[in-house]
Amino acid sequence: MNILIRWGKFNAVGAMGMVLQLTALAVFERCAPGHYLVASAAAVELAILHNFVWHLHYTWRDRAGDSAPLIRLVRFHLSNGLVSMLGNLAILRLLVQEARLPILVADCIAILCCSLINFCLGDHWVFRATSA
């Protein structure tokens, strides 16, 4: 598959995941105000699981892979999950506490900052093409 088509699919899934993450963050922050990093971590995890399922069945469905979906889920958490979780929390803390940006605006910026790294990790490790 053409890399630009795959990048487009990745971003479509990412956009859905972003809506889910921002919605969850808004709900969690409303339920537990003042605990935005905990709320963000929970929202990121929901988006990670959502995105994994969509990437497995849509973005990289043409790559049968050399491993079971559970192995890919572990790889996804070790790569995209860690980048998303650590990147999001670090950037969010900086933008909320230092720059005084609203939480949802800061979260959008954090998500976008992590996306290119996550695409590369997904394409080259999590859902890598197998040798024919």
Q: Describe it for me?
A:
The protein is mostly helical and 132 residues long. The chain has one domain (3-126). 81% of the residues lie in helices and 0% in strands. It has helices spanning 3-31, 36-59, 69-98, 103-126. Helix 1 runs antiparallel to helix 2, helix 2 (36-59) packs antiparallel against helix 3 (69-98) and helix 3 packs antiparallel against helix 4 (103-126). It is elongated and about 50 Å long.
Share of helical residues: over 70%
Total strand segments: 0
Please state roughly what percent of the residues sit in beta strands, choosing from under 5%, 5-15%, 15-25%, 25-35%, 35-45% or over 45%.
under 5%
The biggest beta sheet, please? Answer: none
Number of domains: 1
In sequence order, what are the helices and strands, one letter per element? HHHH
Structural class: mainly alpha
Radius of gyration: 15 Å
Task: Choose one word for the global shape.
Answer: elongated
Mean pLDDT: 92
Ends apart, CA distance between termini: 15 Å
- Number of helices, counting only DSSP H or I runs of 4 residues or more: 4
Poorly predicted runs are: none
Helix and strand arrangement:
Elements: H1 3-31, H2 36-59, H3 69-98, H4 103-126
